[in-house]
Amino acid sequence: MKSLAELQAIKAKMQDKVALREGSSEKRVVVGMATCGIAAGARPVLSAFVEEVSKAGLAGSVTVSQTGCIGLCQYEPIVEVFEAGKDRVTYVKMTADKVARVVEEHLKGGNPVAEYTITNNK
């Protein structure tokens, strides 16, 4: 069994990641995690968003969560970004490799990555 100090260190390390998944922030990233999304690779996408948002220091302003079916199975994995006062942005055919760019350009910089969106993938 781990010592109390080791357990407290693990808790402190994971606290930000838990807050990322439960908070209500200015921006919300929602990953479709129905069976079709999971089969298409949504689980690594969700994990990558949690890691990249945390690494970028955006834990206080961005919440990363999951949802069920978004209804566009042929475009899975699907990620939707919600910001107050702005239209929802829907990213399709996402991969864990694309996440860093979305975090940097869209969540940090305010500019959606148009080539990953539904409007450019029909």
What does this structure look like?
This protein is of the alpha+beta class and 122 residues long. Helices cover 43% and strands 16% of the residues. The chain contains four helices and four strands. Strands 2-1-3-4 form a four-stranded mixed β-sheet. A hairpin with a 5-residue loop joins strand 3 (79-83) and strand 4. Helix 1 (4-22) packs across helix 3 and helix 3 crosses helix 4 (96-108). The protein starts with a helix and ends in a 14-residue tail after the last helix.
Based on DSSP secondary structure assignment, what is the total number of beta strands?
Answer: 4
What is the terminal-to-terminal distance?
A: 53 Å
Strand order of the largest sheet: 2-1-3-4
Number of helices: 4
Key features?
single chain, 122 residues, alpha+beta, 4-stranded mixed sheet, 4 helices, 4 strands, 43% helix, 16% strand, globular
